[in-house]
Amino acid sequence: MKPKVLALVLLVLVSAMNVRSQVQLLGNSVTGVNATSSPTIVNVTLAFDFLLKGTITPSSGSVPSSVTAMSTTSSASFVGTVDTTTNTYRIWLPADTYNLQVSFTNSNTTFTYTDSTSPAPFTVSADTVRNFTLPAVTLTAVSGTVSNLNLAFTSRTLSFDSKTISGFSDVNASATPDGSGNYTVNLPAGNFNVQLSQSAFSFLPPAFSSSALSSNLGSHTVASTLNLTAPTITTDTLSGTVSITGAASIPANSLLSVSDTTAGPPTTTSSGFETLPSTGAYSFTLGNGDTYSLQLVVPVQIVPTPAPAAVFFPPAVAVPALTMNTTDNPTFPALPGAVTAVTIKGRVTIAGTITPVAKATVIAFGNQITGAANTSFSANATTDAQGNYSITVPAGTNYTVSVTGQFTTSGDFDGDGKADFSIFRPASGTWFLNLTDPNILVQQWGAPGDVPARGDYDGDGKTDFAVWRPSTGEWFIIPSSNPSFPIVQQWGTNGDIPVPGDYDGDGKTDFAVWRPSTGEWFIIPSSNPGTPIVQQWGTSGDIPVPGDYDGDGKTDFAVWRPSTGAFFIIPSSNPGTPIVQQWGTSGDIPVPGDYDGDGKTDFAVWRPSTGTWYIIPSSNPGTPIVQQWGTSGDIPVPVDYDRDRKTDIAVWRPSTGTWYVIPSSAPGTSTATQWGTNGDVPIQKPIGQ
């Protein structure tokens, strides 16, 4: 393992935390941040991206493994996700011109090529569908024996790689020789460069050690029989004791790596790495005659916890040519001491708006730390419901603050950020979804009398099929992340009203019911299911209207009282100070939603007698919104259909099964979509109704 790669191991582990797989906003980075005083303010905006998706038609025996969009105007590339069950892919990316780099496997051989489906390259300026077919390949079964293996290295891998196979930019495969050196592999006709890796491992907790030999066996033409000979390698032991100036022992989790620095490089190179015990003792088995360098990587706490440790990687120490078993006791510079801690903080919003991005991952990385040479630091944080974050870092210059984010849309079954037209047919317990991906989905889930209870119960960014059965108080859910294992939960009793929501703010919908007879809320928080929440709030005749009225990322207890037209809310951020807002009149239907995109649920009602919407936007409550949309008999279905993080004004007309939507991103262009029939239940109607 190369020293720089090894030095980044701890940083990668930190950086990978909390990154979600479905991202509908482009990541963004701010470079050159000088964090020399608190607070250092870094506000970041994330732009909307587009969805490139399509169907991959496989050839015989081929399985798609990766699809990457490569920009033709810059060095940017965007890696997609591939569903091998449906042979579909999707990539979130900005407007640009691209080529598609595709990889697939056939008999454990990986082929990479640039898709030439017309047009190529292609332009993305909106959500785009691009289908393609994997090329057919012909493989030869190759077998042989690798002789002259080094018996001290018990783990062996043969790697075959070619960049000259017609139609492909790269073809690679690997094989594992057995104890006698026998191997088999499937390759297309052509010439391949062959590499032999031989490794030896030792694991004596908590120490782990690895030494490896990597030999270039040259270029070979594919044939049914291909025997190979490993070069004769004489090995010696490089061992000793590592010390750090001023340190009585080696800190826990310190890593030592060795790299071959011989000019050339030689046909066979050696490498290794190991975790060091507190004594600093190490031992590597390496090729004789080569020169080496030793690189130390040490985690060190230079700012108080809970901030993570920094990574100290002093300059490598050279080792002369190894001509015999050698003892080398390197001494590395002193560890950095405590330094000044400062705070990087700011807000993440959607570009061009005031809309916050909640639950975005923010990573601060720097390697120019004041008073700590040869040290790097990385820490991450998650934005709150208002897009705010705060990260404690050691004072330094030239930090990079990187942000990735997504948003979850209620009623979005396919994870494209847009709510889908969807209905539940009580007579048969069947769901009918009009999706953008893969278009139409029909799912039987439920029985007559069940109540659909939309929500993201597994926290994967997609709405799950879910019903609540009044007769038994049971919830039946198909989690989209693991549809083969449905969830069944008894919670509630006949007469209750299901009010699913994220009451604990962990990104997962919680089982919850409201009992009209007592006005009590009963909730199983997914973050702590063993401790249910019971809250009395409301009275018989009220309508539950759960929502995030204070914008803290948690669903609030809330009811609307038809007799007075008043909203009564317990804000989770300040439960001791309830909110009471008169808005609406008897006969209205409450339709709470985030109509202004500020992350807070707005007070809103729809008046069936006139088809008029009345909304108090929380970002500008002094200027209510009044919009005529719909007619008596319609059912309001306000959610975000256009992926702009604002609730759209929308109704579903039972008499015709038509959805009428005013998209907030283009209010002058309304849409009408027929989906469903009289007697169906629109999934997007307000929770609690």
How many E-type strands?
59
Please tell me how large the radius of gyration is: 31 Å
Mean residue pLDDT: 93
Strand content is: over 45%
Helix and strand content put the structural class at: mainly beta
Task: Catalogue the unreliable spans.
Answer: 1-23
Q: What count of helical segments does DSSP give?
A: 2
Q: So what's the overall shape?
A: globular
Q: In angstroms, what separates the terminal alpha carbons?
A: 59 Å
Instruction: Summarize the biggest pleated sheet.
Output: 18 strands, antiparallel
Helical proportion, percent range: under 10%
Structural notes for this entry:
Mean pLDDT is 93; it is low at 1-23. The chain has an 18-stranded antiparallel sheet that branches. Strands 4, 7, 8, 12 and 13 form a five-stranded mixed sheet that branches. It is mainly beta. It is globular. It is built from two helices and 59 strands.
State the gist of this model.
With 689 residues, the protein is mostly beta strands.
Helix-strand layout with pairing:
Layout: H1 3-7, H2 9-15, E1 28-35, E2 40-41, E3 44-46, E4 50-57, E5 62-71, E6 77-79, E7 81-83, E8 88-93, E9 96-106, E10 109-114, E11 122-124, E12 128-129, E13 132-133, E14 140-147, E15 155-162, E16 170-175, E17 182-187, E18 191-204, E19 207-221, E20 228-229, E21 235-241, E22 243-244, E23 255-260, E24 268-275, E25 281-287, E26 292-300, E27 310-312, E28 317-319, E29 326-327, E30 331-332, E31 341-350, E32 361-366, E33 375-382, E34 388-394, E35 396-404, E36 421-425, E37 430-434, E38 440-444, E39 451-452, E40 465-469, E41 474-478, E42 487-490, E43 497-498, E44 511-515, E45 520-524, E46 533-536, E47 543-544, E48 557-561, E49 566-570, E50 579-582, E51 589-590, E52 603-607, E53 612-616, E54 625-628, E55 635-636, E56 649-653, E57 658-662, E58 671-674, E59 681-682
Parallel strand pairs: 2-31, 3-31, 4-12, 4-13, 14-20, 21-29, 22-30
Antiparallel strand pairs: 1-35, 4-8, 5-6, 5-9, 7-8, 9-10, 9-11, 10-16, 14-17, 15-16, 15-18, 18-19, 19-24, 21-25, 23-24, 23-26, 26-27, 26-28, 27-33, 31-34, 32-33, 32-35, 36-37, 36-59, 37-38, 39-40, 40-41, 41-42, 43-44, 44-45, 45-46, 47-48, 48-49, 49-50, 51-52, 52-53, 53-54, 55-56, 56-57, 57-58
